[in-house]
Design goal:
Blueprint: H1 27-59, H2 65-78, H3 85-91, H4 95-108, H5 116-129, H6 136-150, H7 154-160, H8 162-183, H9 188-216, H10 225-238, H11 242-248, H12 255-264, H13 272-289, H14 296-312, H15 322-344
Helix pairs in contact: 1-2, 1-4, 1-5, 1-8, 1-9, 1-10, 2-4, 2-9, 5-6, 6-8, 7-8, 9-10, 9-13, 9-15, 13-14, 14-15
Length: 354
């Protein structure tokens, strides 16, 4: 989901009507805190995807040419930039050079609205508009991350070590999440940040999982033996859960178990079930602080989605293929996000999937 924020938005009506003793946020504060968090989460997912994809190409030895190309195109498919493939291949004929070109486009290209620099810039702009509502530590660390991408040597540092540039984003995002938890009151602003984080995580995890499983299970690609294990490990790394998966599943990495864990693990904070559950809890808590009418549609959408996930494990694979199941989950989360914007923010902007 893509959304552009103007830095000169006027202050408009408050969010809902709060019960006695509870102050409702200004709509612009709720809006900006939500999108600050969502853009940071998006940047983190993209940075991790780039690191894992580059590591696969550099560390797995001689890959099958078709499979190596698919590793590159997966990144473009997940971010919906498939149309750039032929253009990039003209100047980058080998898989490794193609991946470097993709990584540069996804990192430093400001014409790409979902590049790392674009996401971090939008997150900072949202944070700047509500500096009085977030902690000084959050603003300072986000500012440091932003200026590291705006420095004169940013392009040179990326060309020398692209993975390190992406890891800087991973570290920055995780640091900012910790700062939010430890330096902010866990009231409405924090809840909107949590809601944004979990909705973005559902969106990106569904996209990554669907693309990777389509690649690894394609009958035309022969990926066997140690290479197959490496690729399944890359799926887990892309979703930041390889250690958690290994603790829960002893033995060989199995495709069905990988999908089951990433989707249904009840206590892992990056599983789809966990994210939907905590999105619903955030909406419930926000509604409890505001009027009973505000957020009803978002609550309904997330409640339905949570119920589908709770009972979906038994039917997954029997009634619907994995990709179809994931698309239904992603679409449900997108509808919930639209409801959040419609009911709590300044205005509903056109929704463009990442």
């Amino acid at each position: 989901m893509n959304r552009h924020l103007s830095s000169s938005q006027p202050v408009r009506s408050r969010v809902g009507s709060a019960p006695l003793g509870t102050s409702a946020l200004l709509a612009r504060v709720a809006d900006a805190s939500y999108w600050m968090s969502r853009y940071l989460e998006r940047a983190e997912h993209l940075a991790r995807l780039l690191v894992v994809s580059m590591d696969v190409l550099t560390g797995a030895g001689e890959l099958d040419a078709d499979f190596a190309l698919r590793v590159c195109t997966d990144v473009l498919q997940i971010t919906q930039h498939d149309h750039l493939l032929s253009q990039l291949q003209q100047t980058a004929p080998t898989p490794m050079s193609l991946m470097n070109a993709i990584a540069r486009h996804m990192t430093l290209d400001e014409s790409n609205p979902n590049s790392l620099i674009s996401c971090i810039s939008k997150a900072r702009e949202n944070a700047r508009s509500i500096r009085e509502s977030i902690s000084a530590e959050i603003w300072e660390n986000l500012n440091v991350l932003y200026w590291s991408f705006r420095s004169d040597d940013a392009a040179a540092r990326f060309d020398e070590a692209p993975q390190e540039t992406c890891r800087q984003v991973l570290t920055g995002s995780l640091l900012l999440q910790g700062l939010a938890d430890q330096t902010m009151d866990h009231g409405q602003i924090w809840l909107f940040m949590q809601l944004a984080k979990y909705l973005e995580r559902v969106e990106m995890t569904c996209r990554i999982l669907a693309a990777k499983f389509t690649t690894l299970c394609a009958p035309t690609l022969s990926v066997q033996g140690p290479l197959q294990v490496i690729q399944w490990m890359s799926v887990l790394r892309s979703c930041c859960c390889i250690e958690a998966y290994r603790r829960a599943n002893i033995g060989e990495i199995n495709a069905d178990r990988v999908a089951e864990f990433i989707i249904f693990a009840p206590s892992f904070p990056r599983s789809i079930l966990f994210c939907v559950q905590h999105s619903l809890e955030a909406v419930d808590r926000i509604r409890a602080m505001l009027s009973a009418d505000a957020g009803r549609e978002a609550q309904r959408q997330l409640g339905r989605l949570y119920a589908e996930l709770q009972y979906g494990q038994a039917t997954l694979g029997a009634d619907a293929p994995l990709t179809e199941f994931l698309e239904n989950i992603r679409a449900g989360a997108a509808q919930a996000a639209i409801a959040v914007q419609d009911q709590w923010f300044l205005q509903v902007e056109p929704t463009i999937n990442v």
